[in-house]
Specification:
It contains 15 helices and 22 strands. It is an alpha/beta fold. The chain folds into two domains: 266 residues, Aldehyde Dehydrogenase, Chain A, domain 1 (3-Layer(aba) Sandwich); 186 residues, Aldehyde Dehydrogenase, Chain A, domain 2 (3-Layer(aba) Sandwich). The strands form six sheets. The chain has a seven-stranded mixed sheet with strand order 14-15-16-13-12-18-19, with helices on both faces. It starts with 6 loop residues before the first strand and ends in a 6-residue tail after the last strand. Bound molecules: nicotinamide-adenine-dinucleotide and (2E,4E)-2-amino-6-oxohexa-2,4-dienoic acid. This is 5-carboxymethyl-2-hydroxymuconate semialdehyde dehydrogenase. Belongs to the aldehyde dehydrogenase family.
């Protein structure tokens, strides 16, 4: 990967625009510089995508699927480079990066190749007519993604978007340009037609992201990130009524019933609260536990939090990772301070770890378990996006469902119970796009993924993604009767 990191436009690296620093979250030190795309660079990327559109859109879906399959294969060939790029930007543990982030990149391209190539078409025979539907790509699509799962989330959009016949200008987060820079090299190395995939780097508001979504040559925007940013993008595209697909924030609830396998509920909750340093939109930040097991659950969860290994990213036993930036670390710590001010009891964490080495300059915070705050407190209402959860007791199923649904968000929820009836009853009462029972973040890429309320608009996954990335045209042909 070049330093400074370049844009990728029309199949070639483009080193234009001022540069900004990318820092290693493990140490806080600058590791490389990145070019920032101004309006003229964004113009150039959109023009390249537009020029490539007719040829790409005209390919049979089987050929586009062959290209995205090739991307999946080439990702495996560059696996360790992608792992290194992702770790350099995020400080993720090598074990997670090797088992989740990068493999899902390859799987995203392959899965959507299969889903698109095998998608059945339907026709309706009317009395004297035949009615059928063709799907056309949206055109040039802006793909804007966040820093928490940079490669997984970018490829989750790129796979279906490209296979549906669109061309793309993608913008990674300013914090995590590395893995998409490697993907651009991969696209060039396999000879993906120039302009089909373009990547521009830069910031959001007043910078590359805003220039991209506002650009008249961009036909649609697919975005994953904060709800507030989704709202700003929606305003920016309102005049042109561009289609938007939004995967936004969460304040996800977990319900633990007294009849649950407590060990599984504790282990599952440790995973759902602390994975990726709590920086996954699906992470649980509010736990509600039935009163008879509340005390034991809190104790065991706190013990689990204290036991999470803070090694270096390259150490296979490491679990905890730093926050992405000093700003985000300070935001998370401000919620720890707020919880203390509001009278919370802190059962684990609540501060920053000390290492006695260069990691003390990094962006680490302690995994934290809180109790004692009302559901209306800011800690229980606002997305923190760090390794922290609040645990509260409940006395009835109805109360638990009411507490879980009392949120402006509605992305994901977990339910821990051994009762099959309760599992079905509670799962369907939860106002969230995704509900896991006795597990968390178990995924089938064909199922709809997304949230309600502030958590997003639309669904991704399987044919739901393909539906967003294409527009149907219904064709009805009158047939003349009596000539057979
Ligand atoms: P963010 O909204 O700050 O940034 C996301 C991306 O949008 C970045 O590339 C950023 O540069 C760009 N951006 C920012 N302002 C913009 C603007 N005005 N116009 C165009 N682009 C703009 O989010 P983040 O801090 O990078 O990520 C964390 C957030 O993402 C959390 O809220 C988390 O819940 C959410 N998230 C949601 C999902 C999901 O699937 N629902 C997945 C991952 C992350
Ligand atoms: O697994 C996925 O497909 C997905 N979109 C995960 C989102 C995680 C949010 O941080």
């Amino acid at each position: 990967m070049p330093d400074p990191v370049t844009h990728f436009i029309g199949g070639v690296p483009v080193a234009l625009g001022p540069t900004f620093a990318a820092c290693d979250p493990v140490t806080g030190r600058e590791v490389r510089r990145v070019h920032e795309a101004d309006r003229s660079v964004v113009d150039r990327a959109v023009a390249a995508a537009r020029a490539a559109l007719p040829g790409w859109a005209a390919l049979p879906v089987a050929e586009r699927a062959a290209w995205t399959r090739r991307l999946g294969d080439a990702i495996e060939e560059r696996f360790e480079d992608l792992v290194a790029a992702e770790i350099a930007d995020t400080g993720k543990s090598i074990t997670q990066t090797r088992t989740l982030d990068i493999p899902r990149g390859a799987a995203n391209f392959r899965a959507f190749a299969e889903i698109a190539a095998q998608r059945p078409e339907s026709a309706f025979h009317l009395k004297d007519a035949l009615s059928y539907t063709v799907r056309r790509p949206l055109g040039v699509v802006a793909v804007i993604v966040p820093w928490n799962l940079p490669f997984l989330l970018a490829t989750w959009k790129l796979g279906p978007c490209l296979v549906a016949g669109n061309t793309v200008v993608a913008k990674p987060s300013e914090h995590t340009p590395g893995s998409l820079a490697v993907l651009a090299e991969i696209a060039a190395s396999i000879g993906l037609p120039p302009g089909v995939l373009n990547v521009v780097n830069g910031f959001g508001t007043g910078s590359t992201g805003q220039f991209l979504v506002e650009h008249p040559g961009v036909d649609a925007v697919t975005f994953t990130g904060e709800s507030r940013t989704g709202s700003a993008i929606m305003k920016a595209v309102a005049d042109r009524v561009k289609p938007v697909s939004f995967e936004l924030g969460g304040k996800n609830a977990g319900l633990v019933f007294a009849d649950a396998d407590l060990e599984a509920a504790v282990e599952g909750s440790v995973r759902s609260v602390f994975t990726n340093g709590g920086q996954v939109c699906l992470c649980t930040e509010r736990l509600y536990v039935e009163r008879p097991v509340f005390g034991e659950f809190v104790e065991r969860l706190a013990e689990g939090a204290r036991g999470l290994a803070f090694g270096r990213p390259q150490d296979e036993s490491t679990v905890m990772m730093p926050m992405i930036s000093a700003e985000h670390r300070d935001k998370v710590l401000s919620y720890y301070a707020l919880a203390k001010d509001e009278g919370a009891t802190i059962h684990a964490g609540g501060g920053t770890p000390r290492f006695g080495d260069e990691r003390d300059g990094g962006y680490y915070v302690e995994p934290t378990v809180l109790t004692g705050l009302p559901n209306g407190s800011r800690v229980n209402r606002e997305e923190i996006f760090g390794p922290v959860c609040h645990v509260a007791p409940f006395d009835s199923e109805a109360e638990a469902v009411g507490l879980a649904n009392d949120s402006e968000y509605g992305l994901a929820a977990t339910v821990w119970t051994s009762s099959l009836n309760r599992a079905h009853r509670v799962a369907r009462s939860l106002e969230a796009g995704l509900v896991w029972v006795n597990t968390w973040y178990l995924r089938d890429l064909r199922t709809p993924f997304g949230g309600v309320r502030l958590s997003g608009i639309g669904r991704e996954g399987g044919t739901h993604s393909l539906d967003f990335y294409s527009e149907p045209t219904t064709i009805t042909i009158k047939l003349e009767a009596g000539h057979g």
